[in-house]
Amino acid sequence: MIAGLVLAMANFIVVLDLTIANVSVPHIAGGLAVSVSSGTWVITSYAVAEAICVPLTGWLAGRFGTLRTFVFSLLGFGIFSVLCGLSESLGMLVAFRLGQGFCGGPLMPLTQTIMLRIFPRELHPKAMAMWAMTVVIAPILGPILGGWISDDWSWEWIFFINVPIIALILFGVVTLLRGVETPTQKTPIDGIGLALLVTWVGALQLMLDKGREEDWFASSFIVGCAVVAAIFFALFLIWELTEEHPIVDLKVFRHPGFTAATLSLILAFGTYFSSIVVIPQWLQTSLGYTATHAGYVMAFSGVLAVVMSPLVPALMKRFDPRLLVFTGIAWLGVCALLRSVWWSTDATFWTLAMPQLLQGAGVALFMVPLTTISLGAVEPRETASAAGMANFGRTLGGAIATAVVTTYWSNQARTDTAQMAGELNGAPELLARMQERGFGVEQSRAVIEQVVTQQGLAVGTTHLFMVAAVVLVFAAMAIWLAPRPPKGVGPAAAH
């Protein structure tokens, strides 16, 4: 259990770094004397490197050994964290964030693989419950911790804070996990497959990260990225499916259980993760919340998730895991629907926090069984590859969903604002009353415009969550495409 906690903490620190820098971009940009838009490369570079490296985990573990790859990745992550904090220019910081992403990518699937190796089969659900909570809680704590460190300390400490935690994890791994190394096999390096992977993932991630800023397909840069991503993705599929020693083992998708679970994970986690991006923005731009108080609203998502997590393994012994996944994702859909009904510009703190609190139960119900179904559907030798592909799908699903959702949210808010402005009755009388109270004509118009824009953004937010509820229903239904895993059998044994 202690070793499992150490591994879960390794995953936690990697997932935390996905979001901790988001709220610190203005501070980083100011400290390095660059624009905020240029500062976003700090986020983009890490996401691109991690997305490229995650699916390579299976090959790395097979070539160098699971534990050895894990230790070197963790050590590299710590070294690059220090270098990020010591950076004196944007170019240095972006380069070191790339290194941090390359080292951090394999850690997520490798923590799963090692946990399944050290825990007895009957305890696999508990191990996956421990692992899943790091994926849920880290994105919530990231913005809170990043904002607090940047405001009260300095942006460099969002990277330096990793170092003592990584040192403790390394000590725990070296002390507790001796003798769990997996056998290695010196397979040839699939250089062409690696080049194709780097090209299409890098182009896609750039398109998603810069699309909204560049007005999407009105920009030749975005069109070029889309074309490159599409062509090289097709070439990548053809090459990897026909290569004798592929860099990414796509054959794991031949298992219906793994494919269905991964599809459900991409849809559900993508929708969940994009809400983590949208809600704090709306609270701060429309309702006047500070970054800290917006973080408090978001933090409620982790309460029931932590409470429910220990109960899920017992439920998995009594009920079909697919039913738990369906119930958990459908419950997230209900919570999204509650937001669309309850939330407005007059919403109180608890009205905003209640759906966040309730959805925690759904997250625990779907994440733990879904991971068990996914990894339980493949053969033991494929566990590292399957974990890498599932985490790659989750990462890519989050990136695509965030890009799509933020664009839809912005467009929907403008549409609703324009519709409200067109249907605004009594504007001349309202202007006259405001002028009687001492407001000038332009001041009165500005105040009315501000109110209409604020209300339009609120309505656009509720419309967004209506759509999210529909997507979550499809994600919940997708799990029924998976065959039922044998009762009481965990990953690596359910094949």
Automatic annotation (TrEMBL):
Annotated localization: Cell membrane
Transmembrane segments: 43-62, 69-88, 128-149, 155-177, 189-208, 220-239, 260-283, 295-316, 323-345, 357-378, 464-482
A Pfam family reported for this protein in Swiss-Prot or TrEMBL: MFS_1
Residues spanning the signal sequence: none
SUPFAM superfamilies the record matches: MFS general substrate transporter (SSF103473)
Stored Gene3D superfamilies: MFS general substrate transporter like domains, Multidrug resistance protein D
UniProt topology in membrane: Multi-pass membrane protein
Keywords: Cell membrane, Membrane, Transmembrane, Transmembrane helix, Transport
Domain Major facilitator superfamily (MFS) profile: 3-487
Family to which this protein belongs: Belongs to the major facilitator superfamily. EmrB family.
Protein name: DHA2 family efflux MFS transporter permease subunit
